[in-house]
Design a protein that fits this description.
Distance between the termini: 96 Å
Radius of gyration: 32 Å
InterPro entries: CarboxyPept-like_regulatory, DUF5686
Number of strands: 43
Largest sheet: 18 strands, antiparallel
Mean pLDDT: 84
Low-confidence stretches: 1-23, 101-106
Protein name: TonB-linked outer membrane protein, SusC/RagA family
Oligomer: single chain
Number of helices: 12
Pfam families: CarbopepD_reg_2, DUF5686
Shape: globular
Strand content: over 45%
Length: 799
């Protein structure tokens, strides 16, 4: 009989011992979707007889092994749990139905809530796990964003005969094409403390060439889940992973899994506690039971529009066995509408934004040339030229047939339909307030306006766009005054000799009107929107002459401007300054603006201000020169300080202070007016609502505005209230006896207090109503005349 060698027998025995349990295991995999076919990310799957399980990935896919037939339990917050028996290997695609989720549900524990104990440990170690506390890091990111008709939803209702005949065409379109697709590759660099730079290397955008469209999805929420606030869009929400969060959030352990290393992973849900009111979220956190670090996060705001809802997801991995670092970020946007009266509203469109973080490296040296960049966010020179090889290298998933067809379709529409070409310049309107019109841009603010002297003003204010020449823009305006029948005009030229736009030269010749005693502070990032106070100006002077300016953005957070004037001022028939008369002004002015922590995005020659991030300081000095006969000699100093301080539970505190001084023997035009609103019924920050225009003029002044904005959230409905209190104070005098004779001064202090209430519904926005009260030495005897009612859109914007 043939005898196997002993060594072969041993190897065969060991191999059988290894293979037998594998063969005996039940391999289960598939996808988890909701009723509408949308993937369910980070759903937990556990086995009945132990706490071993798994979590679906960001695309709803899962894989799990069972040692014997058993019951599989599936859970996801806001969806009905599901359990089913598994006895054979195979693909099990799971659908979870929606359930009514009430934020005010309360679970009462007889003792200490164990979820609070776990979250306190996570919060205690958040500085250890926060990637923003690392000395430095860099990574490459692949960003993809698409909007599509919700094919699964349409098929779901169409198959049940709920939709009309047009549903078939929509389903066909959804199967064939998305509505929009964009890709981008960017490099991100960070050096502690707080120095972040991102540079977009290449883009691929369906129908558009403006790179701003490619990064829409990548800017939707915070990179780190350990800050005091978690940003979704432009709104700050109190982070559940922040100090004392357990006092405001209700945490609940929903499941416990066993990780590969044998320690636990806790699935903890969170939502605001009943009776609390703050900017809150609800969702789920997967906590690593060994390091007490966040492994996965799913969150959405408690107050959202029923038509547009957003859910964000983050996934963290452990790098080098030391650092927990985000590796996948995703945002899902549901566009919900009531298409059929007999059906509830359902998500007709969906948007997905995903960022895959590739090759993260911690502790690397960041070149100084990168850190010296002026802007936190910028683009490579050839960013609009699609680099297919680079995209292919970093794509986490291949493009779908729908993606490819979308690129082809939208590129065709962009070439053939003017509307799509106009949409390509939409970021210009958002960044500057100028409406793109082919080779020109239209300044809406200057093209139509109103004041009490000229009444309606209308005409055209145009500048060439950078499509004509990349380094210069020329243009002007012709505006007709309806009341006076005169034409106002200006000719302008703006030079940008450097590609990054940090150096600008501007020239203007104008024949226009000007406010008496106006003062303004240099801010190159202010949008060109309307100043409501200008609508109620009753008396303007005419100014004719030249202006030239040199603007520099360097170093970081600093803006410098040198400006020269050579102008003639003529009094209008409504002017009050009859003692000085017409005059000439030849002057130079220097401006400094310093905003440490300010976040700026660079759209080529344009800037987008993403937030102050700290205090903002302004200083200016102006000197009148005796260049021509009749020139006024003077010196003028101005300063401003503003600061916005958001808190987690007490709202936002804002403060603004202004001060100025000008030498004696000047026309009223060059003094400082009180900055009253003329009792304008529309709220505007930084003005005195109860003070008539031109009621006070000073050669020295100081004023201050203090505001407290408190949002009051109703977590049971999509409604938010707000309460805003404001105090304004003005002190000023005049050392020029001539000005003292023709105007008043607030030497004893002008005081004003305001109280405003706001109502915000995500469906139609926010409206505020309030009243301001003038008190102190300059209050009127009739108390009712000291009260003024205002209406506005919001008080939530930073100063």
């Amino acid at each position: 009989m043939f005898q196997l060698p002993k060594l072969l027998i041993v190897w065969t025995f060991l191999l059988l011992c290894f293979i037998t349990p594998v063969i005996g295991q039940i391999q289960v995999q598939g996808t988890i979707n909701d009723n509408y076919g949308n993937p369910v990310s980070y759903a937990t799957l556990t086995i009945s007889d132990n706490n071993k399980g798994t979590v679906s990935d960001i695309n709803g896919r899962y894989k799990i092994s069972l040692s014997k037939p058993d019951t599989l339990h599936v859970f996801y917050l806001g969806l009905q749990p599901k359990s089913f028996f598994v006895d054979t290997s195979g693909i099990y695609n799971i659908k979870l139905a929606e359930k009514s989720f009430k934020l005010d549900e309360v679970v009462v524990f007889p003792g200490i809530n164990p979820a609070d104990t776990i979250m306190q440990k996570v919060i205690a170690r958040r500085s250890e796990h926060d990637p923003m506390n690392l000395p430095s890091f860099k990574y490459t990111a692949y960003n993809k964003f698409y909007i599509a008709l919700n094919r699964d939803t349409l098929e779901y209702f169409s198959s049940r005969g709920k939709l009309g005949g047009s549903a078939g065409n929509l389903v066909k379109m959804a199967k064939k094409s998305n509505l929009f697709v964009s890709e981008a590759i960017s490099e991100k660099y960070y050096k502690a403390p707080g120095k972040m730079r991102e540079n977009v290397l290449t883009t691929n955008i369906s129908g558009f060439r403006n790179p701003a469209f490619a990064v829409l999805g990548s800017q939707l929420h915070s990179l780190s889940c350990y800050d005091d606030f978690f940003n979704i869009g432009t709104i700050k929400y109190v982070n559940p992973v922040s100090p004392n969060a357990e006092k405001k959030y209700f945490f609940l352990i929903k499941d416990t899994l066993t990780a590969a290393r044998g320690h636990n992973i806790y699935l903890i849900t969170f939502r605001p506690k009943a009776g609390t009111s703050f900017s809150a979220m609800y969702g789920m956190i997967y906590v690593d039971g060994y390091d007490y670090a966040v492994r996965k996060l799913v969150a959405q705001p408690t107050t959202q529009s029923s038509q547009i809802g957003i859910t964000v997801r983050q996934e963290y991995d452990k790098l080098e066995g030391k650092y927990w670092f985000p590796t996948r970020l995703q945002s899902r946007i549901n566009f919900t509408d009531k298409v059929i009266d007999s059906l509830p509203p359902f998500p007709i469109m969906i948007g997905y934004a995903s960022t895959s973080i590739m090759n993260p490296r911690v502790g690397v040296k960041i070149p100084k040339s990168i850190l010296r960049r002026q802007f936190e966010f910028s683009y490579a020179p050839d960013v609009t030229v699609t680099n297919d090889s680079l995209l292919q290298q970093y794509r986490s998933d291949s493009l779908t047939p729908q993606d490819l067809y979308t690129f082809k379709l939208m590129d065709t529409l962009q070439r053939e339909i003017p509307f799509f070409r106009w949409m390509n310049d939409l970021p210009l309107l958002l960044a500057t307030g100028e409406l793109p019109l082919g080779y020109f841009t239209l300044n809406l603010k200057e093209s139509i306006g109103f004041n009490l002297q000229e009444r309606w003003r209308y005409g055209l204010s145009l500048m060439t766009s950078y499509k004509v020449l990349n380094w210069i823009r020329i243009g002007g305006k012709f505006i007709r005054s309806h009341e006076e029948g005169d034409w106002r005009y200006a000719a302008r030229a703006h030079l940008n000799p450097l590609r990054n736009g940090v150096l600008r030269l501007k020239y203007q010749y104008q024949d226009e009107t000007s406010e008496k005693g106006a003062y303004a502070f240099y801010n190159p990032y202010r949008l060109g929107m309307y100043n409501l106070r200008s609508f109620v100006l009753p008396a303007l002077n005419y100014v004719q002459g030249h202006q030239a300016a040199l603007e520099v953005e360097y170093p970081r957070y600093v803006n410098l401007r040198a400006k020269g004037y050579m102008e003639k001022y003529s009094l209008s028939h409504t002017a009050t300054d009859t003692l000085f008369g017409d005059f000439n002004r030849s002057a130079i002015r220097f401006d400094l603006r310093y905003a440490p922590g300010e976040k700026l995005g660079n759209l080529g020659k344009y800037r987008i201000r993403e937030g102050a991030g700290g205090p903002v300081f302004n200083l200016s000095y102006e000197r009148g020169l005796a260049v021509n006969d009749g020139d006024v000699k003077y010196e003028r100093f101005l300063g401003r300080f503003s600061y916005n301080l958001p808190t987690r539970f007490a709202g936002t505190f804002r403060i603004m202070g202004n001060a100025g001084m000008v030498t004696e023997n000047i026309p009223l035009e060059l003094a400082f007016n009180g900055h009253g609103s003329g009792k304008l019924h529309f709220y505007e920050p930084g003005v005195f609502q109860t003070m008539p225009v031109y009621s006070y003029f000073h050669t020295r002044f100081v004023n201050g505005f203090m505001q407290h904005y408190l949002p009051i959230h109703s977590h049971q409905k999509n409604i938010m209230f707000s309460l805003t209190t404001q105090l304004g104070v003005l002190y000023g005098d005049s050392r020029d006896s001539r000005i003292s004779k023709i105007s008043s001064q607030a030497q004893r202090g002008y005081y004003e207090a305001g109280l405003m209430g706001g109502l915000m519904n995500p469906e139609w926005g926010q409206i505020i109503l309030g009243a301001f009260y003038n008190f102190g030495e300059y209050a009127q005897n009739d108390e009712l005349k000291n009260i003024y009612l205002v209406i506005g859109l919001t008080t939530a914007l930073d100063w």
